[in-house]
Amino acid sequence: MDEREREFHRAMVGIYQTAKRELGYNAAWFLQMISNQGGLATAKQLLWSDTPSDGFTTLWDHGRLDLTVEAHILRPEYEDLFTADDRDKARERLERYGWADGHEAT
Question: Which residues on neighbouring strands pair with residue 100, listed in sequence order?
Answer without folding.
Answer: 103
